[in-house]
Amino acid sequence: MTADSLEQSIDVDQQAVRSAVAKGIRASRHGALSAALTFGWRGLLKIKYVPEQLIDVIAIPVIFTLMFTYLFGGALAGSTTRYLQFILPGTVAMSVVVVTMYAGVGLNADVTKGVSDRFRSLPVWRPAPILGALLGDIARYVLASLVVIALGLILGFRPAGGAGGVALGVALAVVFGFGLSWVWTTVGLILRTPNAVMNLGMVVLFPLTFASNIFVDPRTMPGWVQAFIRVNPVTHLASAERGLMGGIVPVGQVWLSLLATACIVAIFAPLTSYLYGSKH
Amino acid sequence: MGVTVSALRMDMDGVSGPAIEISGLTRTFGRIHAVDGLDLVVPARCIYGFLGPNGAGKTTTIRILATLLRPDSGTARVFGKDVVHEAAAVRAMVSLTGQFASTDDDLTGQENLFLIGRLLGLSRAQARGRAAELLGAFGLEQAAKRQVKHFSGGMRRRLDIAGSLVATPDLLFLDEPTTGLDPHSRSQVWEAIRAIVAVGTTVLLTSQYLNEADQLADRIAVIDHGKVIAEGTTADLKHSMGSSVLQVNLDNPGHREKAEHVLAQEIGIPARHKSDPASLSVRVADSASGSASDRAQAALAELSRAGIPVRAFALARPTLDEVFLALTGHGVTAAAEGDET
User: I want to staple A77 with a disulfide (CB 3.0 to 4.6 A). Which of A82, B28, B136, B233 is the partner?
Assistant: First the structure.
């Protein structure tokens, strides 16, 4: 049935509207956390209804894994199988890092389309829609990681850290992704359109993932590139992933990744919250 | 949550005083004074219309009242609560249906209402029940499981209004609720608005359609350049012109200039061109020389003496359109038409 035929056949029932309004249902202020979880549920529904968003993003790490492993892997590491052991933990980091920009794309769409007007005029904790969306995004990060790991296992990735190491690696990537997504919510509230957020996302995230140790050992790179790579949090995340999945616990790298996450959240979560409360 | 109808509305009866009190409200965006010293009192339990051209400050005012925007100066109270300092209390009493659909396109109609119900503290079962009830009332039952992106404009707007009613608001803001809707959908929305106000909710709506304000609103504020330039019932506003309007359709558009001259001499007020090149209108007031109808008749006689054939004429109370023009010096229709394309 088309929208038009529905429109013709069914009308507003004035009596029913009247009695629905007369019921006088009152808002009872929801706890901050349960409001956020409700928005998390909304985020999960979006994955169900707009899966193409996730597929786009997962395609990137998958393509890069295949491309680097089979085109450059042999030359870089002597054999494609050996290179796969090196690149795959880093690809997990990459896949999560790339997905984070959708936090900004989604928030920007909410603001520009007007949905956030509805949320902001409800008697619920103001930052709940954003926090909830980011909690829902955790499912995306887990999914993206699992796809990459599954692909790796099929191609011959054999993590020495076993299931436990891999799980820890995924957990760390998810925590980092949650932190980094606050950068994108801030960007999402500053830029005008979802597309602008996505374009900036590509422009920032590709250099950020390439200028790291995800694909190659940076030792042969010029000094200034190495200097950037050393301070790039993605480098530390990739090293931590490699360690955890490889069966050693790289305490220093894990701490550095968590510290970077904490710093990002400390700066960008309040900034997001401020922009969301005051803008428009 | 299981409050009975009468108990709740009794509560409302306890709320005396106006729904909205605005005093000296200003808000600028860069160099634009969107709201520029606006003063207004909106009584409770009525449909109140904000009328004005694009950019008059209607939406900005509503966004301030719905706590989405902070004013630069001045105060606004909703049922006695300050929109800045008691924002949470205000949010518990108001609902907003914005100019652009505030529904989530990716979700289904049912999920949209369920989401709002959960956010307002309803249990899953309650939120589900409330969603079903509202979908039924707004004729959206069959579309409940479809994503909103597949809804027609009218269905979307009805869902949006239903979303504003999940909890019963004391004050409902409807920002241009029928802009862009076909006549059938528009009358559907009007019916819903009448039903909502019948049960005691105050409705503040903005409109660029004078006809809509005339049909729905008990009182109207005409807003222009961020200020209220006239306020009252539609009858008040029409009466404030103190005159009727004589409309004349000529046989021959070529006679219009001459007819204009005759009418101006006879009535003493310059006639106004209508968009139809063969018609013109002029305000006629009662005066010492006779009642408005006597004077209109005399003017028509004068036209025929001047040899200008008249196809049709009418003497009527001014339309809101004419009131608006008289008040602002510019029409709303042109702006509204421009906006819809």
Answer: A82
Q: In this structure, what CATH number is given to the domain that contains residue B301? A: 3.30.70.270
| Helix, strand or coil, per DSSP, at residue B276 | coil
pLDDT tens string B54-82: 888 999 999 999 999 999 999 999 999 99
CB contact under 8 A, B140 and A10: yes
Beta-carbon separation of A24 and B100 below 8 A: no
Q: Taking the C-alpha atoms of B202, B208, B209 and B210 in order, what is their torsion angle to the nearest 10 degrees?
A: 80
Q: Do A45 and B107 touch (CB under 8 A)?
A: yes
What's the distance, CA B212 to chain centroid? 6
What string of H, E and C letters represents the secondary structure of chain A?
Answer: CCHHHHHHHCCCCHHHHHHHHHCCCCCCCCCHHHHHHHHHHHHHHHHHHCHHHHHHHHHHHHHHHHHHHHHHHHHHHCCHHHHHHHHHHHHHHHHHHHHCHHHHHHHHHHHHHCHHHHHHCCCCCCCHHHHHHHHHHHHHHHHHHHHHHHHHHHHCCCCCCHHHHHHHHHHHHHHHHHHHHHHHHHHHHHCCCHHHHHHHHHHHHHHHHHCCCCCCCHHHCCHHHHHHHHHCHHHHHHHHHHHHHCCCCCHHHHHHHHHHHHHHHHHHHHHHHHHHHHCC
Q: For B17-57, write each residue's pLDDT tens digit.
A: 899 999 999 999 988 999 999 999 999 999 999 988 888 89
* CATH code of the domain in which B36 resides: 3.40.50.300
Q: Name chain B contacts of A119, Cβ cutoff 8 Å.
A: 119
Q: Contact A113/B3, CB-based, under 8 Å?
A: no
B111 and B191 in one domain?
yes
* Structural domains of chain A, count: 1
Task: Look at strands B171-175 and B94-97 and give their pairing.
Answer: parallel
Nearest to B52 by CA among B331, B282, B341, B338: B331
- Poorest-confidence range of A109-113, A145-149, A205-209, B252-256? B252-256
Q: Which residue(s) pair with B174 in the sheet?
A: B97, B205
The DSSP secondary-structure symbol of B142 reads G
Residues 78-117, chain A: which have Cβ within 8 Å of B?
Answer: 113-115, 117
Report the domain count for chain B: 2
Least CB–CB distance from A35: residue in B11, B94, B119:
B119
Supply the ipTM of this predicted assembly.
Answer: 0.88
Question: Average pLDDT in the A166-185 region?
Answer: 97
